[in-house]
Write a structure and sequence with these properties.
By secondary structure, this protein is α+β, with helices and mostly antiparallel strands. Helix content is 54%, strand content 15%.
């Protein structure tokens, strides 16, 4: 009988030893997955987010975007889960070392070996390696972990929501200590710190850099009425003549309507086929890059660099084409107007005196503010589409004004010099002095 009891205890101890080891390995794997998920979620680049939204809207990708809409709750869910797994890992490792009898009965030796081994395992295999891997394979990690994190987030909502709300107090304390510098203050600092002999170009570039991250693509895009695009059914000979007349290096190509753009034609691709009588030129069109009209131009510049492209088509929330923007348009917001031998020399405005200018109504409002050194924020109270000077006047007046009609807004007086029943064409703008 004692022999049977001894055998049973030995088998039970063996099963317990194996079970604890399996649990430790599973917990270590879970710790690695949660640590990798944290890096994977918060290392997504703008181009990858755009890919998830537009090019591959699968169920998992929608879950990823939904989780990223609440970043604080997402981070709290991952941290709570990872902390619970690590605590369980420490507890089971303690049981494992206590029951294994591998180190004898010396409690000090067991303690130091346990601390060293568990720390090494969690740090190396539960933190460092998974985070390094996730930084280079974030989409692969998220395709596997997005749904589990979503389910765990639902379960841990009673814990994560109070934790997120409690951080608002710390946010307020940090905001009090943080020095808030507005764009106006930065611009004023550039004015007062620049030497008298500093070239105006340097000041303009510095101001362009300050305002660069605060400009939407719709403020500087080429609007739809000014776009030049070719239909897919255009005959080859007619296409060549229109290419010569346009003088652009890249032109959008559409099918049926301008809202159905199929690609971009690079004019250099036509050079090898100029002498042909007929050629199936739609074979040359390249993929189009679409961006929403509220995208910031600093993000767009980064995406231009990553994708190695020079043109994007601007669309609204319904997918309708609103205009196009090029790399040159973005860079001009920093360095000023870039002219080449093909650009028209016709000015978009005429300066009559220090307070009076005549503008083409289609001039972008951002360009008007830059020329007159006005602050764009002065128009924030006007709601609606005000990307161009004509759009601003329509939002103020609510109807298309007549010729010679005068519209006043704050210290600006607009006089309509040319218009028809459909649009405003030319506007005289006067800066009203305070004594007036």
């Amino acid at each position: 009988m004692p022999v049977v009891s001894s055998l049973l205890l030995t088998n039970f101890s063996s099963y317990s030893f194996t079970g604890e080891l399996i649990v430790i390995l599973v917990l270590l794997l879970l710790s690695a997955l949660f640590a990798g998920s944290e890096v994977a979620f918060f290392s997504l680049r703008p181009a990858q987010l755009q890919y998830l939204r537009d090019e591959k809207p699968t169920y998992i990708n929608k879950i990823i975007l939904h989780l990223l809409d609440q970043p604080k709750k997402l981070l709290a869910t991952i941290l709570i889960s990872n902390t619970c797994v690590n605590i369980a890992l420490i507890i089971f490792s303690s049981l494992f070392f206590s029951n294994s009898q591998l180190l004898g009965d010396n409690p000090i030796l067991i303690f130091f070996v346990q601390v060293f081994s568990v720390t090494f395992l969690i740090t190396m295999f539960g933190e460092v390696l998974p985070k390094v891997y996730a930084a280079h394979n974030n989409l692969r990690i998220l395709s596997f972990m997005a749904y589990p994190v979503y389910i765990i987030g639902k379960i841990l909502t009673p814990l994560s929501v109070p934790l997120v709300k409690s951080t608002s107090l710390f946010d307020k304390l940090l905001k009090r200590k943080r020095t808030n510098v507005s764009l106006d203050e930065l611009t004023h600092a550039i004015e007062i710190t620049s030497d008298i002999e500093s070239p105006p170009e340097e000041k303009r570039i510095l101001k362009g850099i300050v305002n660069f991250g605060n400009i939407d693509v719709k403020q500087i895009m080429r609007p739809l009425p000014d776009m030049i695009a070719f239909g897919l059914q255009t005959p080859f000979k007619e296409l060549l003549q229109r290419v010569i007349d346009a003088g652009y290096s890249r032109v959008p190509v559409y099918e049926s309507s301008i809202d159905n753009i199929k690609g971009v034609l690079h004019i250099k691709d036509l050079l090898a086929h100029i002498k042909k009588e007929n050629f199936d030129w739609p074979l040359l069109i390249r993929k189009t890059y679409f961006v929403p009209e509220n995208k910031k131009i600093n993000d767009l510049l980064q995406e231009f660099q990553q994708r190695k492209i020079h043109m994007a088509i601007i669309v609204d929330e319904f997918g309708a084409t609103q205009g196009l923007i090029t790399l040159e348009d973005v860079l001009e917001e920093i360095v000023g107007e870039i002219k080449d031998e093909f650009d028209d020399e016709e000015p978009v405005y005429t300066k009559i005196d220090e307070q009076t200018y005549v503008f083409e109504a289609k001039t972008s409002l951002n360009e008007v503010c830059r020329i007159l050194e006005l602050d764009m924020e002065m128009f924030d109270e006007i709601e609606g589409e005000k990307d161009t000077l004509a759009g601003l006047l329509l939002e103020i007046n609510h109807t298309i004004p007549r010729i010679s009609e005068v519209i006043t807004f704050k210290n600006l007086r607009f006089t309509i010099e040319s218009a028809d029943r459909r649009k405003i064409k030319r506007v005289k703008l006067q800066i009203i002095q305070e004594q007036e």
